[in-house]
From TrEMBL, chain A:
<dbReference type="GO" id="GO:0000462">
    <property type="term" value="P:maturation of SSU-rRNA from tricistronic rRNA transcript (SSU-rRNA, 5.8S rRNA, LSU-rRNA)"/>
</dbReference>
<dbReference type="InterPro" id="IPR012952">
    <property type="entry name" value="BING4_C_dom"/>
</dbReference>
<dbReference type="Pfam" id="PF00400">
    <property type="entry name" value="WD40"/>
</dbReference>
<keyword id="KW-0677">Repeat</keyword>
<dbReference type="GO" id="GO:0032040">
    <property type="term" value="C:small-subunit processome"/>
</dbReference>
<keyword id="KW-0539">Nucleus</keyword>
<feature type="compositionally biased region" description="Basic residues">
    <location>
        <begin position="14"/>
        <end position="26"/>
    </location>
</feature>
<protein>
    <submittedName>
        <fullName>WD repeat-containing protein 46</fullName>
    </submittedName>
</protein>
<keyword id="KW-0853">WD repeat</keyword>
TrEMBL record, chain B:
<dbReference type="GO" id="GO:0046697">
    <property type="term" value="P:decidualization"/>
</dbReference>
<feature type="repeat" description="WD">
    <location>
        <begin position="278"/>
        <end position="319"/>
    </location>
</feature>
<keyword id="KW-0833">Ubl conjugation pathway</keyword>
<keyword id="KW-0687">Ribonucleoprotein</keyword>
<dbReference type="Pfam" id="PF04158">
    <property type="entry name" value="Sof1"/>
</dbReference>
<dbReference type="GO" id="GO:0000462">
    <property type="term" value="P:maturation of SSU-rRNA from tricistronic rRNA transcript (SSU-rRNA, 5.8S rRNA, LSU-rRNA)"/>
</dbReference>
<dbReference type="GO" id="GO:0016567">
    <property type="term" value="P:protein ubiquitination"/>
</dbReference>
<dbReference type="InterPro" id="IPR015943">
    <property type="entry name" value="WD40/YVTN_repeat-like_dom_sf"/>
</dbReference>
<dbReference type="GO" id="GO:0080008">
    <property type="term" value="C:Cul4-RING E3 ubiquitin ligase complex"/>
</dbReference>
Amino acid sequence: METASKPGRDVQPKKARLQTKKKKPRRYWEEEATLTAAGASPGPPRNKKRNRELRPQRPKNINIPKKSRIPGKPQCPKKPREQRNLEPQRNLSGAQDPFPGPAPVPEEVARKFRRIDKSKKLPHSKSKTRSRLEVAEAEEEEISIKAARSELLLAEEPGFLEGEDGEDTAKIRQAEIVEAVDIASAAKHFDLNLRQFGPYRLNYSPVGRHLAFGGHRGHVATLDWVTKRLMCEINVMEAVQDIRFLHSEALFAVAQNRWLHIYDNQGIELHCIRRCDRVTRLEFLPFHFLLATASETGFLTYLDVSVGKIVAALNARAGRLDVMTKNPYNAVIHLGHSNGTVSLWSPAMKEPLAKILCHRGGVRAVAVDSTGTYMATSGLDHQLKIFDLRGMFQPLSARTLPLGAGHLAFSQRGLLAAGMSDVVNIWMGQGMASPPSLEQPYLTHRLSGHVHGLHFCPFEDVLGLGHSGGITSMLVPGAAEPNFDGLENNPYRSQKQRQEWEVKALLEKVPAELICLDPRALAEVDVISLEQEKKERIERLGYDPEAKAPFQPKPKQKGHSSTASLVKRKRKVMDKEHRDKVRQSLEQQPQKQEKKAKPLKARPSALDRFVR
Amino acid sequence: MKVKMLSRNPDNYVRETKLDLQRVPRNYDPTLHPFEVPREYVRALNATKLERVFAKPFLASLDGHRDGVNCLAKHPKSLATVLSGACDGEVRIWNLTKRKCIRTIQAHEGFVRGICTRFCGTSFFTVGDDKTVKHWKMDGPGYGEEEEPLHTILGKTVYTGIDHHWKEAVFATCGQQVDIWDEQRTSPICSMTWGFDSISSVKFNPIETFLLGSCASDRNIVLYDMRQATPLKKVILDMRTNTICWNPMEAFIFTAANEDYNLYTFDMRALDTPVMVHMDHVSAVLDVDYSPTGKEFVSASFDKSIRIFPVDKSRSREVYHTKRMQHVICVKWTSDSKYIMCGSDEMNIRLWKANASEKLGVLTSREKAAKDYNQKLKEKFQHHPHIKRIARHRHLPKSIYSQIQEQRIMKEARRRKEVNRLKHSKPGSVSIVPEKKKHIVAVVK
């Protein structure tokens, strides 16, 4: 993997240059020796490569935080590297280690595992606390490098689809892909012709082995789609609005015309939840065991499925809710409204966490990618927009589609699928962690009916499509994460493993109150309440216990500590402090003036009096 | 067209036979592990709760003494052996693994005031109210032999404490003066005094072995150097110190158990301000002993409880009490740093775990890994209010609880008065004296 290198990096170190200058003319008797040396060490190219790559930071070097503060740059202790370059280690046999030191780690991979945002400054704290924080930071750094190094052990490679030069991948039809791939993968493409039960919604289980789908005319079924084994099939005799697996494949929730029902994997109705009525959309938050339901009545209700209690019922005050998605990164629910806004909700708050004006008309579909970085929205104005969810919710790109997308879905690796009447388009980003570029679709597919539901299968290169003609399983090479984690969602887990996982997951159920925009906020220092506490303490005590004591000169040796000199030293320190204070206030003054000056800039108008 | 679909071979992910272990491929990608921090927080919360559930520190009570236990001594070589002296002059040697008394000696008439073992572990010394110092063999007498001390030294005054040098055949006693004795002689090598008062305890420094510390009832702590004939320096506190204990890892640090309910950790080099004032007891602190790691110490108090303090914290991390335990007179931390023993007024020696929720016995590697992981989690989230509240909560007997409340009110009143005085007087004329400086009267060299 290539890494960004500083412009000056390729220049050889100073000492090396000096050596080249001093190089003696070569003698014929030296030839053999130099040749062997060259053979043992590849020389400059290796050096260059090594310079570019990241080495683990040793705990010894934690005391130079100022330099290491620059994010995204390879942090490498300078001294040891130079030493290594100058005197490579030699074995007893005289052979030289061609790859000295620990294995290098590509910077991009290490960045993926980095948890601490180094651009943020550490809060002002006492030296002991500070050093402890610095040690913790250094540890995190080391851990991220170790994790990045373990990436080498991953077994699978992601899929891909490449056209011959000039060939547009969007022109490649499913049949061609099916013909080109192996039998096991070809079997993943299938169509279920269920025209009589009309448009289908569908959902894959979190491990990606199971598929649940419900038709608008009441047909509900779940199947192990890999082996095509039907688990249950029922008709609920009522319109099915949405269907969703709960934490495992053993339970699924169906939003029926009137109430919300929960079934088990044999199709036996376990619960009928009458407090959630006229539900249009369902979302399940697996780590919180919350089932979020959006209803026609305008309520967003959170149901804790582990205890069966309603955690929060929030009135969105925006009429009928039928566009909903979850942010998998922070479990915030995104609701799309008919006035073109998308509102972000957490069960802990009665009001939305944020409202984003996305479209001129109503919002038709919303999707958030698995890293929680990008949000795709489509509206009645036929626009498809991608927003950056970090920081200020900036729109990144937009595109007008001829019909407008009615359904959107992100895959694990960041592919965006949009269903536009009976056509499905899939867009792909340029690289990892980049938003999908909307110019050229990656794949397109035409269905036999109008799209009603889209869902990328986790851990498989498959996109499930529910439409008015039934279900289609579409092959999308490169959509899914190739390497699953056996302790989280394991498609090959046994029943015993599932049971153990379920117990652990229940023990680690995250309380609903912890849902907020930044899930890492819990591990950060709460500076605001700390300062508040300090202020209260000063108020309560009547003085500041941590205030700096006034300077008291220490008595010096006998004969050097006259009263006059003591006063002089005291005065000196006081004057210095005073000067510093004045300097600071002078620095602040121009800023204040600028702030004041701004409103005066515009020419006053008679209409100003009506401005509120 | 070049195409590759993700296609896994199930053989790589499913175990071959039922006898194999399940295969668990790992991928540490953070996007596959969302909510890392909230989940860790919940785990830390659970671990903290479990810690409180499993906190059962009381292990055993050794009964057999017929009067209150006055002093305890550890065996320097054997973890299982403990010596105790009682108020009726009886000395008992206990085996902790069997939890039985293995030897009983009627050593003195009246109290056994002090007991200490020789560094080699073959013999021990006792002092009593009968003005004698007795030297005993650790092993019992043979069949038909009488129980007799190796040596007996008859003194002129009552001895109140004894301690043995850590490396040489020298011991120190205290009473009206501090005496340094050679084991072979019947008269002290030297006697040191500073003022006239009864000295309650004397302790050798375990690292700088020539140094001694003693505390007397005229409220002072005196430091001596054995090589000199005169004391080094002393610090006078508000109230009298009952005993001191040296930090076994940092030679210059010692902790004093004071009558004013506090413990003071001093740096020997700067006695004018204690390094830390440890407050939590609600009655006089009678004894203190350091953990062999030097990171924590245990204190015994007249308020019928023992507390464990980290050296650098002013509040205790643990309090142990039982319904039957009366005023605790002596306490010792065992040499493996895992257990605590305390001897109390009602004739029992109690054995406690130093870490209340620790699982005893051999741990499997998985148990150990889980324990370490939980420990780290608890450490990481220890400052979160919910976790802090659970970790700090201790049940206290009503007497201690109400005393704490009462003292809190008193302290608050004093503080309020101080602040009012500060507010209503000329600026600079009244200064706030920090807690550390409040209790030090003077340092004399």
